[in-house]
Structure to design on (815 residues):
């Protein structure tokens, strides 16, 4: 066999870095309470770092229980005095403004997100930021049409919503939480993740620019203790949380009996099911997108690949060829496909679980890409010879690690796909529509993609079943989480 | 952050394994061909279009851009296929093909000139034994609506007049009506008539409409002995598009892996700007790799593209845009 090499060497892409200066990051940030940036009561702070370089980006305020109290109080007052009396069309006006301002400042937001999170600039520029704006646009349209949303003639808001969001899509998750809550007439206290607070703080500036009434949205930064204080606050009427199943379970226990409404969007172990009649090349791209998009830091990632045995060798060969091609490195380079792991903790968890995979007897195939010496990195990895009982087939790795299993019949595919505690998303690849539908209606997951993966749209509800949580975000259904219905 | 500390390492291989060449199967029956084409995977249109849209965001800077522009120039089949063509115009085109920028000898020559059969002799007399190929459309271009005898004569005359590349059209009507054997046998016959001349088989993808058809027609043409598969005549409403090029490149890649035969791809019609051309090169780069990043295996059929490439080349070298009149019209 003659192998033709230096293939991609044909066009070596020169560095194409986006400018970090566009982000205009300040040296330190206060808490955004009642329309103003304020210092935390006990002046505690922490640093947020660039995971690609380990450089400190900015000093961030650590909100304690007193700060949380101030934020919730501001939200409560704004709800009672202003926002609950603001008409639907007026609320829509603010949401449209926010959407447009996100678009206007999209480059600044994209660069800030990439610096703070480590994800490639191509993704923040083409996916995170445009989708965040799209969510505000979409829910702006609902603000004056709640009576027609299917929740009765005059559905009412819940009051103050405490919203805790993760680090994997910082601004986008803020948009998923804020847009429907505001459209429905609630006020909000938003807590971004400890490692990725910057775009939420930039969003606070945008809210000021949009002249959103003071206190309607408050943004407080901090670690888990800040989130816990928010969850425990008696004046919070609703908690919306996106994050790990473990924390979600704790939240549900803590608010039991309090009367607080709750929606949880938790972990996943999505199955990407490939039948032998799948469109091959697009399916390989779909597998790649399913697990290596955003370094695999995606709750709905297609982290389990279930391939029909008859084509398993061919799929693996094509898949690994494509994995080798992924450009891993500087997230600020416009040609980067896979960026940095968000934190040292997450890198440790990914490393631990992949080591377990090898110990348990799975075969590890890893991209030969050269990783930068500083920062947190993990080379795209595929495990074969994985069985259902392996930890890498059961636990959420939340990193660029794919576990490949095989099946022989559609029944076996469904059985294996459903053999998980989670139920967030699955993909089905086949050119035969009847089979796709047969499989889809038997899968226990909130989202099923057919011949695609990781496609998001504000009009489409997103959420899980079982240990992946409950409640929907996006679409008409997403309003329900913020209405008293 | 210094980007050099995090410099991207480009993978050095697409991992394409090309086995030793083996004899192509000879298909003497319709059902044999049908079975062969049936084994091809379908194409998901949404996925294919999303893939090229993503590749379209690649950012080529500095040296990459310079070398890509020169590569693109060397891949142009400089084309004139007008009823109003004259010997003078063709001669002028040949001069330009050999020296695209008369004031700068560093600019590479293009791959070929592409003309109608009656202009081949003129083209050959200007080019002589130069490196630029003389390509001729043949087989009742662009419709292909003629008998096989006429098509073969058309081909032979062009080859006899000095063409070393023939761009033939397939019988789209036969393909769409399922008469695969007719299409196959015509290509085999034209290939035979070509002798040593290279054969480019035009699929006219705008008339095949679906990506599934494009993949099947690509495979059929390669089985019949095509040296190149080509998207379009440039004479119908829809010509070369990036997703069609992607599907054809995937087909030549899979064909090389299966039969050990490296077939080229020519995109033609509607490619006018450097920006467009670079997008195609990125798709080539990331689908099939450097074997195909070569004028022997990838071509642009175009007329106005060359001047835009020259304009952008000058911009890259000097930092300034030249006036369009700086380069000859044809």
């Amino acid at each position: 066999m003659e192998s033709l090499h230096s293939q991609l060497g044909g066009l070596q892409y020169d560095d194409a870095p986006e400018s970090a200066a566009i982000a205009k990051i300040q040296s330190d940030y206060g808490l955004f309470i009642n329309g103003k940036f304020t210092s935390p009561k006990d002046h505690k702070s922490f640093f947020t770092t660039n995971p690609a370089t380990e450089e400190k980006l900015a000093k961030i305020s650590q909100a304690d229980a007193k700060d949380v109290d101030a934020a919730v109080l501001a939200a409560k007052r704004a709800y009672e005095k202003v926002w609950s009396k603001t008409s639907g069309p007026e609320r829509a006006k603010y949401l449209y403004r926010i959407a447009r301002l996100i678009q206007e400042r999209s480059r600044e937001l994209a660069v800030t997100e990439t610096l703070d999170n480590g994800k490639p600039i191509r993704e923040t520029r083409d996916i995170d930021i445009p989708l965040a704006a799209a969510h505000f646009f979409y829910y702006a349209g609902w603000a004056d049409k709640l009576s027609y949303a299917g929740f009765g003639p005059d559905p009412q808001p819940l009051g103050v919503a405490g919203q805790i969001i993760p680090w994997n899509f910082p601004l986008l998750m803020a948009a998923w939480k804020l847009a429907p809550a505001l459209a429905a007439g609630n006020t909000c206290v938003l807590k971004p993740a400890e490692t990725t607070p910057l775009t939420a703080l930039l969003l606070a500036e945008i809210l000021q620019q949009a002249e959103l009434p003071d206190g309607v949205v408050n943004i407080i930064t901090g670690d888990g203790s800040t989130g816990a204080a928010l969850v425990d606050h008696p004046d919070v009427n609703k908690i919306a949380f996106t994050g790990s199943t473990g924390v979600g379970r704790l939240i549900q226990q803590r608010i039991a009996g309090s009367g607080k409404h709750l929606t949880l969007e938790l972990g996943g172990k999505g199955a990407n099911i490939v039948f032998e009649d799948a469109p091959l090349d697009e399916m390989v791209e779909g597998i790649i997108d399913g697990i290596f998009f955003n370094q695999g830091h995606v709750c709905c990632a297609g982290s389990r690949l279930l391939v029909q045995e008859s084509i398993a060798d061919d799929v693996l060969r094509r898949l690994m060829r494509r994995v080798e091609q992924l450009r891993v490195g500087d997230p600020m380079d416009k040609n980067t496909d896979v960026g940095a792991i968000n934190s040292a903790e997450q890198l440790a968890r990914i490393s631990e679980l992949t080591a377990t995979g090898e110990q348990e007897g799975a075969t590890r195939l890893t991209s030969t890409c050269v990783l930068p010496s500083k920062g947190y990195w993990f080379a795209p990895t595929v495990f074969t010879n994985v069985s259902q009982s392996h930890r890498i087939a059961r636990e959420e790795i939340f990193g660029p690690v794919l576990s490949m299993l095989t099946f022989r019949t559609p029944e076996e595919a469904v059985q294996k796909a459903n053999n998980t505690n989670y139920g967030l998303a699955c993909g089905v690849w086949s050119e035969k529509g009847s089979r796709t539908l047969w499989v889809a209606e038997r899968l226990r997951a909130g989202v099923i993609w057919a011949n695609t993966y990781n496609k998001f749209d504000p009009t489409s509800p997103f959420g899980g079943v079982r240990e992946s949580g409950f409640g929907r975000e996006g679409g008409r259904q997403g309003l329900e989480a913020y209405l008293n219905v | 952050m210094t980007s050099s500390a995090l410099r991207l390492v480009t993978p050095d291989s697409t991992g394409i394994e090309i086995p030793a060449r083996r004899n192509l199967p000879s298909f003497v029956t319709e059902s044999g061909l049908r079975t062969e084409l049936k084994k091809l995977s379908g194409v998901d249109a949404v996925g294919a279009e999303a893939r090229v849209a993503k590749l379209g965001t690649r950012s080529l800077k500095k040296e990459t851009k310079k070398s890509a522009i020169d590569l693109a120039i060397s891949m142009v089949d400089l084309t004139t296929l007008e009823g109003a063509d004259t010997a003078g115009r063709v001669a002028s085109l040949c001069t330009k093909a050999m020296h695209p920028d008369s004031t700068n000898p560093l600019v590479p020559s293009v791959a070929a000139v592409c003309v109608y059969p009656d202009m081949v002799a003129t083209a050959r007399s200007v080019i002589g034994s130069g490196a630029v190929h003389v390509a001729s459309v043949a087989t009742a271009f662009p419709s292909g609506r003629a008998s096989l005898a006429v098509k073969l004569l058309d081909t032979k005359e062009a080859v006899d007049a000095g063409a070393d590349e023939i761009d033939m059209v397939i019988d789209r009507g036969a393909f769409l009506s399922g008469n695969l054997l007719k299409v196959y046998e015509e290509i085999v016959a034209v290939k035979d008539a070509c002798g040593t001349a290279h054969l480019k088989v035009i699929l006219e993808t705008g008339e095949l409409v679906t990506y599934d058809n494009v993949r099947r027609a690509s495979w059929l043409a390669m089985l019949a002995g095509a040296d190149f598969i080509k998207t379009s005549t440039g004479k119908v409403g829809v010509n070369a598009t990036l997703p069609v090029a992607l599907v054809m490149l995937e087909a030549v890649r899979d064909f090389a892996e299966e039969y050990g035969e490296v077939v080229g791809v020519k995109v033609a019609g509607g490619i006018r700007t450097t920006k467009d051309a670079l997008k195609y090169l990125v798709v080539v780069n990331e689908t099939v790799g450097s074997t195909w990043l070569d004028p022997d295996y990838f071509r642009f059929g175009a007329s106005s593209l060359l001047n835009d490439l020259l304009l952008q080349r000058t911009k890259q070298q000097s930092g300034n845009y030249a006036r369009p009149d700086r380069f000859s019209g044809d």
User: Anything to note?
Assistant: Chain A touches chain B through 58 residues (CB under 8 Å). The domain at 21-266+467-480 of chain A is CATH 3.40.605.10 (Aldehyde Dehydrogenase; Chain A, domain 1).
